[in-house]
Amino acid sequence: MSDPAAPTTQDADVDYLEQYRVPCVPEVYYIPDFITEHEEEYLLRKAPPQPMWRTLANRRLQIWGGIIKNGVLVGQKLPDWLDKFPDLVTRLRDTGAFKSAKHGQPNHVIVNEYLAGQGIMPHEDGPAYHPVVGTISLGSHAVFNYYKYADTPSTDAPADAGRAVDRTPLVSLLLEPRSLVITRSSLYTGHLHGIEERTHDVLGEDGVIVANAHLVRAEEARTGGTLTRATRMSLTCRDVERVLDVKRFGK
Ligand SMILES: O=C(O)CCC(=O)C(=O)O
Ligand SMILES: [Fe+2]
Predict the structure, then answer these.
(1) Within 13 Å, how many C-alpha atoms sit on residue 77's CB side?
(2) Is residue 13 part of a domain?
(3) Nearest of 169, 174, 168 to residue 212 by alpha carbon
(4) Residue 194 domain-assigned?
(5) Which pTM was predicted?
(6) Which domain holds residue 97?
């Protein structure tokens, strides 16, 4: 079993993140083995309650931490499997990545599950979130792409409302099982992100050059080769700044 790469509180500073910095991309950090195999197994097989899945055309999802209405989170306590075992919230806080966020740690988690061949269209996430996103991958890898708009953004145009997208990714990252990727940059605001619907990813010169090649476990990212996708579950963890406290109504 691999050890988690999570830091202890005393080394929760910029240096911890620096070693995981993705070169040539502003403020993106890739941390392999952020969670253990045991934790991964628990999260995949036991944790997300079956009745909570919402099935969409190309993935299914659960949303934890509350509902966002008009940019305000109607907050609900995160379940134990996100903040006790595994203690993901504390571990994410201890990376230091959320230091500049209002609550210093995530309060909202989207769980997505993709079968091999499924993905998510290029999109923007909206303004409710502080521009720090922590994404944990479980069960399978994915190639995560950032895209730019094909036109020059006009300052008063609403985000992605009918604007053409340049379908050649600006940057691609390989997200391996048990890894964490932290994005704290303009890549989340003013750009789009997505995952192509594929059963296999060809890496290297004949396929995708990933910007985090030297940080990943898979040799294929450096030497070239094909990775076969399986079912992937992702946890997209964020700090929603504006929270309506409804403790008195809920658990
Ligand atoms: O599965 C992922 O890593 C991406 C999920 C995502 O972009 C979203 O839920 O908005
Ligand atoms: Fe997204």
Answers:
(1) 10
(2) no
(3) 174
(4) yes
(5) 0.90
(6) 18-151+164-245
pLDDT tens digits, 188-200: 778 899 999 999 9
Token readout for 96 is 């230091």
User: 10 C-alpha to center of ligand 1: Å?
Assistant: 31
Query: Could you tell me the CATH number of the domain that includes residue 226?
Result: 2.60.120.590
In a domain, 89, yes or no: yes
ipTM for this prediction:
0.99
Residue 10 belongs to a domain: no
Ligand 1 mutation target, pool 181, 187, 234, most atoms within 8 A of CB: 234
pLDDT tens digits for 74-132?
989 999 999 999 999 999 999 999 998 999 999 999 999 999 999 999 998 877 776 89
**What's the pLDDT tens digit per position in 218-242?**
999 999 999 999 999 999 999 999 9
Helix ranges, the chain (H) = 14-18, 37-45, 80-83, 88-94, 220-223
Pairwise CA distance, residues 142 & 165, whole Å: 21
Distance 135 CA to ligand 1 centre (A): 8
Q: Is the beta carbon of 76 within 6 A of some atom in ligand 1? A: no
When divided into structural domains, the chain yields a total of: 1
